[in-house]
Amino acid sequence: MTGKKSRPTHIRTVWFRLSLPMIICVASFMLYPFVYSLVLSFYSHKGLASSFVGAGNYVKMFHDPTFVKALGNNLLFLAIQVPLMLVLALFLAYLLETKDLKWVGFYRTALFLPCVTSLVAYSLVFRTMFQFDGLVNRLLKAMGFISAPLPWFTSRALARAVVILALCWRWTGYNMMYYIAGLQNISKELTEAAMIDGCSRLNAFIRIVIPQLKPVIVFTSVTSTIGTLQLFDEITMLTEGGPGNGTMTVSYYIYKQSFELNNNYGYSAAMSWVIVAIVALLSLIQLRVTREE
Amino acid sequence: MAKNKKRVSRVLTYIVLTLVSLISIFPCYWMFISAFNSTEQIVGGRMIPSTHLMENLRNLFDTYPIVQGVLNSMKISCITVMSSLLIASLAAYGFEKFRTDHSEKVYNVILIGMMVPFSALVVPLYRMMAKSGIVNTHAAVILPAAGSIFLLFFFRQNFRTIPDEILESARIDGAGELRIFATIVIPTMRATYAAAAIYAFMMSWNNYMWPMIILSSDAKKTIIVLVSKIVTSGYYPDYGVQMAGLVIATIPIAAIFMFLQKSFVEGLTGSVKG
To answer: Angle between the A156-185 and A214-229 helix axes, to the nearest 10 degrees?
Structure first.
């Protein structure tokens, strides 16, 4: 009898015992540092000394030209690169879903290949290709597009263009895979019926297919946005934030502030909370949009 | 007319796909063949391999502890994959098959953690490691990666397909939950584990920011952190050596991916379908 009575409680705590290692990991390496960084953000550090400054760090950063510039760069990359990449990914997924297309396997592997390369490796390859006397300038010149080599890494606009190109190269295939999976999940009957009624394939795609892909589109937009907000590896390898902070990002500035310049951990923590706030806001929007379904 | 138009759009489709595929492949191809070329040839825009591979490799191995770097990466990635797969899948099994109101709440709180940007954790994590005296150890790289929230989510999505009847009949036979997990869950979900392992291995192998911060001595560094230094260490770097280093750092991932591509793509995209 006692066995039967104690069984419900026993069952009710199984999930907890099974997930205990996970909970410990998340609590100690995610939750605790997360709260710790909020506390840190109210302190200022100089050398080994720290003093409570309240909201001082948060006020300071918006008067810090480098931070403002870094945040602006993050938003600029986001506004140009994310839409460009997602439209291209959707377009390629649409082309790959053409009826009776040959060599689909080859195209898919080729387009997914960049995702296998490490961020460090592809960034360094791009850095080498875009050198002043490098491959890209030579090719452009040979094809007659330019008469003198372009200063890719000493012009602000061109350095930003290289970062955007590199990001698109690395991540388009990744997002395309999600669109292909999404396309394969929606029924083709509606599209086919519309095309029999005289609707063009592209028109049918825009009017009928894209609305059905909305959850996947929202998912890829939010993950790409979060990724761009945290841009770090590419900047370190490609441009080191230059020229003149023209490609500086918040993550790279946080790293420099805490580990290279002056170990001002409190200030770095405060800056990271700006990113946390933006990410939280975007996630809320995503939740709203997908809940409407 | 209509037939002609259709043919034109078909040809255009092939042209666009081929062109984009070539652009997609080219940097990888160029990295690979440039490992065979000298710096002058690379800068000069040579697009076929030459004979400088051995020279590049010799310079690379003489200047950097490459073998040690690969071994360090292997060690860190393997331990990370095994521990994170075990921890995440055990928890996913608990959350999916023993659901209660409390468990759902805890699960949702954990999932929010997926949104936390890593740069917000870097400073506190570094100070935690410094206080525990494990800066510049591999443990400091592995510990924060051991509880992967993405893997928890991924496993739970896939564990939905395990029929409860099988688990129930095992329970009637008197098997404990850990034994059911080891003898039923893991074998039936082999494909899910394979996809998760590739994903975790890639993430760990390619990880740059955290290992770069926490590992200070060359003997402890991962191969990715080592090769990242080749470009930043000299004013005019030896590109042939750099490309050889990048190829060595990329080969293990590329090999794993080529062998297991199908299960990886299917496994990952499967998790967004649900």
So the answer is: 150
| ipTM value for the complex | 0.85
Cα end-to-end distance, chain B, whole Å: 43
Domain ranges of chain A: 65-291
Q: Are B257 and B48 within 8 A, CB to CB?
A: no
Cα distance from A117 to chain B (closest Cα, Å)? Answer: 6
CA distance to partner chain B, nearest, from residue A21 (Å) = 6
Expressed as residue numbers, the domain containing B156 is 63-273
Of A92, A131, A219, the CB nearest to B20: A92
Count up the domains in chain B and report the number.
Answer: 1
pLDDT (tens place) for every residue of chain A, 293 residues total: 334 444 556 677 889 999 999 999 999 999 999 999 999 999 888 767 788 888 889 999 999 999 999 999 999 999 999 999 999 999 999 899 887 888 888 998 899 889 888 899 999 999 989 988 888 998 899 888 888 889 999 999 999 999 999 999 999 999 998 898 888 878 778 888 888 887 787 788 888 888 888 888 988 988 898 889 889 999 998 998 879 899 999 999 999 988 887 788 889 999 999 988 988 888 788 778 777 65
Residue B44 lies in a domain: no
CA distances from A60 to A74, A263, B88, B197 (A): 19, 16, 40, 44
Q: Do A19 and B103 touch (CB under 8 A)?
A: yes
Taking the CA of residue A1 and the nearest CA in chain B, the distance in Å comes to: 18
Q: Does B65 reach chain A within 8 Å, measured CB to CB?
A: no
The CATH number, out of the four listed (3.40.640.10, 3.20.20.70, 1.10.3720.10, 1.10.10.60), of the domain defined by the range A65-291:
1.10.3720.10
Residues of A in contact with B9 (CB under 8 A): 201
Residue B150 near chain A (CB below 8 Å): no
Q: Is there a domain that residue B42 lies in?
A: no
Contact B45 A139 (CB under 8 A): yes
Evaluate whether residue B84 is within a structural domain: yes
In chain B, residues with a C-beta closer than 8 Å to the C-beta of A101 are 13
- Answer whether B84's CB lies under 8 Å from B200's CB: yes
CB contact B42 to A (< 8 Å): yes
CA distance linking residue A5 with residue A283, whole number of Å: 43
